[in-house]
Write a structure and sequence with these properties.
12 strands; 8-stranded mixed beta sheet; 350 residues
């Protein structure tokens, strides 16, 4: 059963230079009980995508086109008042910055109880307090600390309090934006396991937004790799991290350490994502891609399907012909438009 279906979604931000295409033509679905990871560089549209789904885009942001169907209802067609009914009870969000997400003048208990009573009219204070105690226990917090204020919690405790709040109403879909960003490695592992346990109990689905591929590898069933507001590649975790077909995914994978190959040098992709107010024609990764041709720079790629992956690359059919092996070599990534431009600037060339 499909819980969420996003189709041809476009989200723009108004800027002084004109509309910026933060999310451009994105389509995907999430099934019941499924975990979907969204990875990519900062500014690729991951958080904007989540905010569009739950309906909390900033004033400068707006949905320009597309649909967001949740349990068969297109949320983009609902008035704000009706759409608010879905927040927390049906779709909740673990925000990236717990300190900013929690109200500093209310206790943690008051904030969770308010969410429960607002979205479940008729819930008594005793029942609401029982939910608070249960959720604190599930995320590893002492229920006796529920009457503390956010500033009395450490960063990791605030993050766990946000997770408790997001899961208190047993939502069908949880949007987790960098859910472990304020936690050390040991606490990350504990929290991810707790989220998984709670998900199993309430049979919820989750969309995990992160730049950390290890978090996705541990928690998700499928992965979407985003680049410059678009989907570069989508597929099962094993295939995306095993045999991807998009050069960006391959480069992104090589930029993270591999515990099985401790002596492996990390590689970087030269250059930066394109300006989204006036994005280039063709593939948006072309300037930084060692496989780019004139076709890549001029024609937008269509989906290429291989081994369960959906890859937007003109040369995906050629990836198996030695590119994965060559991708381990820094010289491969030096042969790009962006790398050559950086080298020229370093030399002082015009």
């Amino acid at each position: 059963m499909t819980v969420l279906n996003v189709s041809d979604l476009e989200v723009y931000y108004e800027t002084e230079s004109g509309p910026a295409q933060a999310v451009d033509g994105v389509s995907f679905s999430i099934g019941e009980g499924e975990n979907l990871g969204i990875v990519g560089e900062s500014g690729c549209g991951k958080t904007t995508l989540a905010k569009a789904i739950i309906g909390i885009l900033p004033d400068a942001g707006y949905i320009n086109n597309g649909s967001i169907e949740f349990d068969g209802t297109d949320l983009t067609e609902l008035p704000d008042k009706q759409r608010r009914r879905y927040k927390w009870e049906e779709i909740s969000m673990i925000a990236q910055s717990a300190m900013n997400a929690l109200d500093p003048v209310y206790t943690i208990r008051e904030q969770i109880v308010e969410a429960v009573e607002t979205h479940r009219p008729g819930t008594g204070r005793t029942e609401a307090n029982e939910i608070v105690a249960e959720m604190f226990d599930l995320v590893g917090l002492d229920p006796g600390r529920a009457d503390d204020y956010p500033h009395q919690f450490s960063g990791g405790m605030r993050q766990r309090a946000m997770i408790a709040m997001a899961l208190a109403l047993e939502p069908s879909l949880v949007l987790a934006d960098e859910p472990t960003t304020a936690l050390d490695v040991i606490m990350q592992d504990q929290i991810l396991k707790r989220i998984g346990q709670i998900q199993t109990e309430i049979n919820s689905s989750m969309m995990v937004i992160t730049h950390d591929v290890s978090v996705v590898a541990e928690t998700c069933d499928r992965v979407i790799v985003m680049y410059a507001g678009q989907i570069a590649e989508e597929g099962p975790v094993e295939e995306i991290f095993g045999q991807p077909y998009h050069p960006y995914t391959i480069g992104l994978k090589r930029a993270f350490p591999n515990i099985r190959e401790s002596d492996q040098d990390l590689l970087s992709i030269a250059g930066y994502p394109p300006e989204l107010v006036d994005p280039p024609s063709g593939c948006r990764f072309a300037e930084r891609c060692p496989l780019a041709t004139d076709e890549c720079r001029e024609v937008e790629p269509q989906a290429h399907h291989n081994n369960g992956l959906r890859s937007y690359c003109h040369r995906a059919d050629e990836i198996d012909e030695g590119f994965r092996a060559r991708a381990d070599d820094a010289e491969t990534w030096a042969d790009t438009d962006a790398a050559r431009e950086i080298e020229a600037l370093a030399k002082g060339d015009d």
